[in-house]
Amino acid sequence: MSSSSSALPISSPELTVALSAVLRASLATTQIFKTIPSSLTKSDKSPVTLGDFAAQAIVNTLIAKYFPDDGIVAEEEASALREDEQLRGKVGELVKMALEKDEQSLTGTKESELPSGSKKWSAEDWEQSDRFLSALDRGNFNGGPSGRFWALDPIDGTKGFLRGGQYAICLALVENGEPILACMACPNLPYAVSDEKPKEGDRSGVRGDGSVFIAVKGKGAFHRSIAPPSAAFEPIKMNSLSGGLSSASFCESVEAGHSSQGTNARIAELLGISSPPVRMDSQAKYASVARGDGDIYLRLPVGDGSYVEKIWDHAAGALLCEEAGGSVSDCSGKRLDFGKGRTLSANKGVVVALKGRHTEVVEAVKKALIEEGRGNLLGEQK
Ligand SMILES: Nc1ncnc2c1ncn2[C@@H]1O[C@H](COP(=O)(O)O)[C@@H](O)[C@H]1OP(=O)(O)O
Ligand SMILES: [Mg+2]
Ligand SMILES: [Mg+2]
Ligand SMILES: [Mg+2]
C-alpha cells in the first residue's frame, strides 16, 4: 500500500480532503454539542440543528474547492437559513471557525499534501451569506447509477445529538452505484477501549477522544482518535465470531420508530443470542460493528415498511463494514443499491454481519418477518 501522506495509510487525494472535511465539521458540531442545541422541525417532522447546517456547509465547501465537478447528495438545504438572519449568522461563524483551522494541527496533513484546489479559498468569502448558503445547497444532487458523486449526512443521528447521545458525520464517495471511499467522524464514540462511553445526556462529551473511521474499497478500513492529529490510523476488522453466532452481540437504533426492535428480539432468539441489544444512535452502529465492539447491525423496517432509507444514512457505514470483513444487505439479502437516486428505493431494511455468517442471519431475518406476516418486505424472494 503506497503512502504519500504522513497522516493516512492510503494515498488518495479524495480521502485527504474527506478527512479534512469531516474533522472540520466535527469541530463545529462538538462546539454546539456542549450546549443543548435548539432545533427546527423539517417538513418530514424530523429535527435539524445549526450543527447540521454548519457541518454540511463546511464539507460542501471543501468538496466544491477541491473537486468542483463532483455532485453532492446531502441531507440538508439552506431555505430555513435564508429566512432567519440570526440563525444564518450563527452558522456562518461556525463555518468560518472550522474552515480557518490550520490543516496540519487538525488532520496531521501538510497543506502542501492537499490537492490543488480550484481557487484559493478565503475565510472571509464564506462569511458572506450568499456563498455559504450556496455551498450548503450544493447538496441537492440527485445521484444515480453512473459516474461519481459524494453522499453526505452532516449529522447522522440528529435525535441522538439533541439527546446527548451518539451522532456521526458521514461522508462517502459513490461511483457507479457503489461506495468506494468512506470517512466518518464519531465525536462521542471513545477511541480507547478503556474510555467509557459518556452517559446519555452528558454534554461534556466523550472522556478521552472520539473516533474517526476511513475505508477505501479494496484497501481496508481504519480508525484513529479524532485528536491529536499525529495519531496513526490502525486497521480494523470485524470479530471472527469463533464462538458461533449465539455469542454475537447486536446493535440497533435507540429510536423505536426507526427500526423494528420487536423483530430484532425474535431474530436474536432464532440465532440463540441471549445478550440484550446495544442501542445506539446513528451510523456509529456500523462503525462499532466494523471494529468489533459489536457483531451484527439490524435495521428492519417498522410497520408496512413505507419509510424509504436515504443513501447518506448508509453509504459510509456500509463500506466501513464491508472493508472490515462484513457483508451488508437489505432484509432479503440483496446488496444495497446506491445508484437509485437519493434513496435506497430498491431495498428494505439493513442487515450487517460477518461475511461468513451473513447468510445465516438473513435466513433468521426472513423467518421472523414471515412469522409476523410481513414477508412482503422481502420482495420477490419471499
Ligand atoms: N422514520 C424513520 N425511519 C428510519 N430512519 C429515520 C426515520 N426518520 C429519520 N431517520 C434517519 O434515521 C437515522 C437515525 O437512525 P438511528 O435511529 O439509527 O440513529 C438518521 O439518519 C435519521 O436521519 P438524521 O440524519 O436526520 O438523524
Ligand atoms: Mg441520517
Ligand atoms: Mg442527518
Ligand atoms: Mg435529519
Automatic annotation (TrEMBL):
CDD domains: PAP_phosphatase (cd01517). Coiled coil: none annotated. Keywords: Hydrolase, Magnesium, Metal-binding. Its EC number is 3.1.3.7. PROSITE patterns: IMP_1, IMP_2. SUPFAM superfamilies: Carbohydrate phosphatase. Mg(2+) binds at residues 75, 153, 155-156, 313. The keyword Oxidoreductase does not apply. One of its GO terms (biological process) is sulfate assimilation. Residues 102-121 are annotated as: Disordered. One of its GO terms (molecular function) is metal ion binding. Its cofactor is Mg(2+). InterPro entries: DPNP, Inositol_monoP_metal-BS, Inositol_monoP_superfamily, Inositol_monophosphatase-like, Inositol_monophosphatase_CS. It catalyses: adenosine 2',5'-bisphosphate + H2O = AMP + phosphate; adenosine 3',5'-bisphosphate + H2O = AMP + phosphate; 3'-phosphoadenylyl sulfate + H2O = adenosine 5'-phosphosulfate + phosphate. Belongs to the inositol monophosphatase superfamily. NCBIfam families: bisphos_HAL2. This is 3'(2'),5'-bisphosphate nucleotidase. It comes from Pseudomicrostroma glucosiphilum.
